[in-house]
Each structure stands twice: as C-alpha cells, then as structure tokens.
Design a protein that fits this description.
By secondary structure, this protein is an alpha/beta fold. It has eleven helices and seven strands. Helix 2 packs across helix 3. It starts with 5 loop residues before the first helix and ends in a 19-residue tail after the last helix.
Length: 266
Amino acid sequence: GYPFEVAARNEVVGRARDTGQSEGRGKVVGLVRLAELSKATILDDGEGGTGKELVARAIHTHSPRSGGPFVTVNSGSMPTDLLESNLFGHIRGSFTGAVANKKGLFESAEGGSIFFDEIGTVGLETQAKLLRVIQEKEFMRVGSVETQKADVRIIAATNVDLKRLVTESRFRDDLYYRLCVFPLEMPALRDRREDIPDLMAHFVRLACERFHLPEPRLTQRQLERAQQYDWPGNIRELQNVVERALIQSHNGSLEIDLPETRDLAA
C-alpha cells in the first residue's frame, strides 16, 4: 500500500467530488445540497470508486442530524443471520453463541444516519425488516418480540441496477420505492472527462503537500492521454495512480503508468 492513511485518502476523494467543471459534477453537487436539507431516504447509485460513501457522509455532516452518529453497514460482506444481528441486535439465548444481549447498528445510529453500502446484496427476508424500519420507524432485536423505535435516516448505495433486481424478484419493489425517494446518481469518471485535468492537479497538489515534495508539472500530453483512459476504478483509481507516480518519481520527473497507456510519461 501507499503511505497514505485511509482517513487521509477518504478526505482527498471526498474533496475531489467537488472538483471540476463538468455538467455531471454540477448536477451532483446541486442534488447533494438539496439532500442535506431534506429528511428523505436517499438512494445513491453509481459505480465503485465514485465516492458514494463520502457523499453520504457529507449529506449527514451538513444535515440537521449532524450532531448524531454516522454508521456504515457493508451489506455485501455478511451472511443474513449475522447481518440481522448486527443491524437489529439480539437477545441472550436467541442463537448459539448469543451469551448476552447485544445492541445493533440501528440503536447505535439513533438520532443520526445509517449508510447501507451494496444494498442490492441484502436478502429478501432482511429487506422486509428494513421496510418496516422505514415505514413504522421500529424494529425488533433477533429473538425478541418487543419492538424498539428507530429515529434514523437511511442512506443506501448500490452499484447494481436495483430496477433489474426488482424485475427478477430479487429486490422488493416496495422497498425500492421507499429508498428511492431522493435518488442520487454519481457519474463515472469517463463521463466527466473534462474534469480529469483539474482532478489530477488536485491530487498532485495534495499528495505533494503530504509528502513534502516539490510539485511536478503535468504536461499537456499527460493530461490528454489521461482523458483518453476509461478509469474503471473512477476517482479512487485516479488518486491511486497519482500517488503511485509521486512515490516512484525521481529528480522531479513524474511518470504516470496506466494499464492501456504505458507511454504516458512526463
């Protein structure tokens, strides 16, 4: 890995979401500002690396719930039983290994926001319980028959087509429409190519500040070739490429190595 802490990397990518002059960037910034003022459930749609979680954090930070917690759930990394226990908590004896009552993430997020990454991977049974949280503002711990109130704003993200999952009966249509009250679509970097020069300069400047290095000049050829690349990893990939180039740079010469653009050199 590179000598950038995860928190620093996230901060840089978060700031980069506001960098550039493209129409797509402008639309996202405008919608984010509206979402910050809204109380609605939000569905953040976009490819990996476009900054969905960081947009969710920004919405929370500038919302009336900013004084409450921001809790992240990586929905795709857990089996159903473990996911539900993590979300809703459980009572002692509800399953093997449940030796004590446990508070879930919804309780931990009380008064704040909860961010669901990869919401499309959640199973149908759990989807029904999430729908109840949205509609009734309540849930039950695993193994319990007592309901608990939930004052939590849900922000969900997906990099798959939820409408297609609905037609395939793999995602509840009622949950989809409840989540999609305020949709946000994060544009892929290849759809905002005019922003790439500004983003590259942004990453170079911030990385040089962190490394205490002199800032190299980006040539016109570098910028043009970078705009020709499709950036499947989006802003996150661009950041990593710039970091790698600076780490490997010698005598102020910056060489940017892209998979399909090997001759992109200063």
